[in-house]
Amino acid sequence: MNFKRFLPHLVAVIGFAVLAVLYCSPVLKGKRLNQHDIIQSVAAGREVVEYHKQTGEWAWWTNSMFGGMPAYMISGDYPTSLTHKLGQYINLLLPDPANYIWLMMVGGFVLMLALGVNVWLSALGAIAYSFASYTLLSLEAGHVSKILALAYAPGILGGVILALRGRYLTGAALAALFLGLELYANHVQITYYLAFGIIIYVLIESVVAIREGRIRQLLLALSALGVAAVLAVGTHTTRLWNAADYVTVTTRGKSELTITPKAEPGAPAAAATTPEDGLGKDYAFQYSYGIGETFTLLIPNYAGGPSVSSLTTDSETYKKMTGIGVDPGNAQQFVQQLPMYHGNLYSQSGPAYAGAIVIFLFVLGLLIVPGRLKWWALGIAFLYIAWAWGKNFPAFNYAFFDYFPAFNKFRAVTMTLTLAQLPLVLLGILALKEIVDKKYSAAQLNRPLLISLGATAGFSLLMALAPTVFQSFRGNNDEMMLNNLEQGLQSKPLAEQVVAAMIDDRIGMLRSDAFRSAILILLVGGLIWLFVRNRIKPLVFYPVLLALMIFDLFNVDKRYFNNDDFVSKQAIQETITPTAADEQILADKALDFRVLDLTASFMSDAKASYFHKSLGGYHAAKLRRYQELAEFQLYRNLREPQTAPNAMNVINMLNTKYFITQLQSANPQQAPGPPVAQRNPGALGNAWFVETYRLVPNANEEMQALDSLNTAKAAVVDQRFAEQLTGLKIQPDSAANSIRLTSYKPNELIYESNATTEQLAVFSEIYYNVRGEWQATIDGKEVPHLRANYVLRAMRVPAGKHTIVFKFDPVSIRVGKVVDLVCSLLIIAFIGTAVFIENRKKTV
Known about the structure:
Number of helices: 28
Shape: globular
Largest sheet: 5 strands, antiparallel
């Protein structure tokens, strides 16, 4: 092997690491990003992580969130999966989050090399792909799995392209490696959207190959890719099996309810309780990018940037405020938090900016790049952008939602804009390849170059000179702001003047960025013009082009993700420091009970889960029945006075022993006090015997029965479990009968029961039985258990003294890890064979 041949590639990869660390330079001082989703993830997974530290075993179930749920999608390890362990190791090569940016660049670099692009342009494409603003905004928010999925996506595409171009084993091996790493990332939504694009490419190439009579070549390529896909997926059998089972009973699966919950004050929007399989349209398309707003890909401030922006004392708003007599200090404070965003979304952290240079090169590629790949790139770019429009493009997107398998499992479709960067960059780099390979003379390039400049720089200049022709610059929150200003200034005309000044500032922001985009495009256009006329050498052309690309993207990215986002490790730790209320609850050494944190939106906040077993949590795929219980019952329980009959029935059956509330000041003008813990005397404990039960025919009646059910004495059971209750005649004896929890582990619960006659026990544990994961025994003998009260477990308990055990033992874990290992060994052999044959070809 000629290592000198790979030296430029090694230099590029090292350069990517330097660039990533420079962008995240505070990591050199030991600082870290204070990422919301990462903090939530750490809190959610703490119980199972601590259990693993103590025992060396992963529990695969946690009671720390939503009363209890599988830990598959929270925390765990897959030691027999090669690609899983490889992905973990790669993440450690650089400090977080520089490692993820570096991986993005390496992934983009691999794709460009697979396309036959030289190292300089491959590096340019890698940078252009990695520093799209939406990508870095996702990283800043802590969406690490999404970034990893985006990082490995180009490698899969590169492998598929190589295989279909005749390098069967090399391409398939590359695809196998990157697909395995893609699945390690565990972001099904990005992988699903990526698969759409790749399948379309394969179909196009297959049709062409059949028409041209290259059937054998096509079959070899597809066979090799098929083996690659099977092996890559096989290394993640455990994870994918877990996810496939779990999703069927989450908010992304089918509901048995045909009724809708009553809207409760303060309750978050329902996740669409519908009988359809998947999410409801309103929920799925809640975040939809505006069609006109898509011009942010070219001009970052086309729609005003993030939801809240900071202006300077040179702004029109500040001048207007001080001009009408507002104190300069107050005016300066006012302009620090202004709603400058005026797009379709209700809120956003920043725009989807692809790069002015990227868009220019993409348009140029449409004019000068030959072949099918160009049209694929155009079509897929449009598809991803159109999906991001969501409800704003209903005829198109509702058809996908209604008819394409699994499309309705996902929400936040705006994330497709991060994938749109892939075809945009790909075609732009291919355009440069055509130019540097001298496929066009200077004269031949004049027309396409001028058209591209006109379409991009020309449009940008038009926006700078006549911005109000295309949009009003009014935002969704302007009316609210006008009302607030009217109250504060005691004058509607003055308030209208301030809002008008803010609109002028929005126009100014657009103008500034439009001129910026136009200048950058003209500079790159001029650079290309000089290069094709041999006025500058490649050693000048490439570095200047790289510098302009880096400046273009870094300059915008740093507006939203910069050094100010980094904090010390101590500051991050302080975000999960226990309060006095937490300490009080932690002093209670009872084996198992739950806590309801009312200081936050408990169904979308997992911080309480760091210290307690919480009724709430933070997860993208909650158990559907628990979500429905919250929408129909928990919010109602919290709203009704505690003196009302059964007002706390559901909260009590969930063994909610403590509430965390905010201490309110007697003076409404003062800020609320610290959190306090309040004990709930009505909590029913870990298990209890009921006096009676009621069978109901369907989920609707089961849910409605909870409205008035005295859960301490009665249970409601779905008719499907009637056979388990045949012949049961309960004879209550509260004095003599007892059942209590004697041992607690996340994945194993042991109870002792003592009863004079056969009883029906209700356990304050979430019922989960997709494939018999929770196995119950009485005195070591396996027995069935059933679901009661919509979400809880129940069991017939014979008379006498008995030991009852619930153990979580999924078959997907037991069998899956064996398949993981076998496929890991096979994928090593497959990739090794490909490398050996490739090297032998080069030495022959």
